[in-house]
Specification:
It holds the Pfam family FAD_binding_3. This protein is an alpha/beta fold. Helix content is 42%, strand content 24%. Strand 12 (191-198) and strand 13 form a beta hairpin.
């Protein structure tokens, strides 16, 4: 079975879904509420399983041309003492390929490039979807890839599950030098992370209970080990992005509705960024949905395909979201002595 599909949202999950559906022979269009795509430069960590999904979608090679491997990352105290290593080497040994990091604009451009190559997948900007019922009536498949405040989810799944604050403010940015020190530093109620992103630059992120200005953020990390203060001092605050951390709660009982609607990415399971799996889960959702449609719909119809997608992805994605939220609590605790002791005992 093929037909017409509309994807609401042009983030990573939405673009990847559109690629997969178009490859499966569907007629696809994309609606995006913004007037242009966001191109801020934060780094996405792409796990080997998500890399394999990108390969199946046909964009793995292009993605890897702009990605960098993530190795040698440590968890440290604010004084710089190493508590543990992140399990990146273990992941690489098991998967046969390393964790990769890519700047968000590069991943978006890779996906857009694949869509442009088809030449027949319209992407319409400034489309603030309100009438989801009309989309359902006019298409064989509607995919909600419209983020944590998803209009598709609210319309078809109700408002019981929605964005919930967790009481933490996050800041992200890019420093124009390579720090040479990667991983995360865990303090009391706050933490700071640094990763590679591309030659000559360092991706950084910080979370604190509250900070409304650049100077307040710098004050939270005054006296921390090098190069944390230097990164904040030498990165222009005008390039920083601040947001209040939220997650989707409670977990949805299903990712599909009515045999015609499916959710992917943050619309289905928005999570805290602590495990670095937001982009990965969106990619895995997109590939699983389009594979289910391709494999199941011809024989048993679209409702059966959507049930297969839900069975494959819902519990897995929700386990990741649950683990990420619990890791946030663990990392941001005020009881650092016990936390640090536990971290030292973790296998590397």
């Amino acid at each position: 079975m093929t037909g017409t599909a509309v994807v609401v949202g042009a983030g990573v999950g939405g673009l990847a879904t559109a690629i997969g559906l178009r490859r499966a022979g569907w007629t696809v269009s994309i609606l995006e509420r913004r007037t242009e795509l966001e191109r801020y430069g934060t780094a996405f960590g792409i796990h080997p399983t998500a890399q394999a999904a990108l390969d199946r979608l046909g964009v793995g090679e292009a993605f890897r041309s702009r990605a960098v491997p993530y190795r040698g990352a440590r968890i440290r105290t604010p004084r710089g003492k190493v508590l543990a290593s992140l399990p990146l080497e273990r992941i690489e040994r098991k998967a046969g390929r390393p964790e990769l990091l890519v700047a968000r604009p590069y991943l978006i451009d890779t996906l857009l490039g694949e869509l442009d190559a088809f030449g027949d997948v319209p992407l319409k900007f400034g489309e603030n979807v309100r009438d989801v019922a009309a989309l359902v009536a006019g298409h064989d498949l509607v995919v909600g890839a419209d983020g944590i405040r998803s209009a598709v989810r609210a319309s078809r799944f109700g408002d019981r599950s929605g964005p919930r604050r967790i009481g933490t403010v996050a800041w992200i940015g890019i420093a124009d030098f390579e720090s040479g020190v990667y991983g995360e530093t865990w303090g009391k109620g706050r933490f700071f992370g640094m990763t590679p992103v591309e030659p000559g630059r360092t991706n950084w992120y910080a979370t604190v209970p509250e900070a409304t200005t650049a100077e307040e953020l710098r004050g939270h990390f005054e006296g921390w080990h090098d190069p944390v203060p230097r990164i904040l001092a030498e990165t222009a605050p005008s390039t920083w992005i601040r947001y209040e951390m939220r997650h989707l709660f409670p977990a949805l009982p299903t990712f599909v509705h009515g045999g015609k609607v499916a959710l992917v990415g943050d619309a289905a399971h928005a999570m805290t960024p602590n495990l670095g799996q937001g982009a990965c889960t969106a990619i895995l959702d997109a590939e699983a949905l389009t594979r289910a449609v391709s494999e199941h719909a011809p024989a048993s119809g679209l409702p059966s395909a959507l049930r297969a997608y839900d069975a494959e992805r819902r519990r897995s994605a929700q386990r990741v979201a649950f683990a990420s939220r619990n890791l946030h609590r663990f990392m941001a605790t005020e009881h650092t002595r016990m936390r640090d002791l536990l971290v030292r005992m973790m296998p590397t």
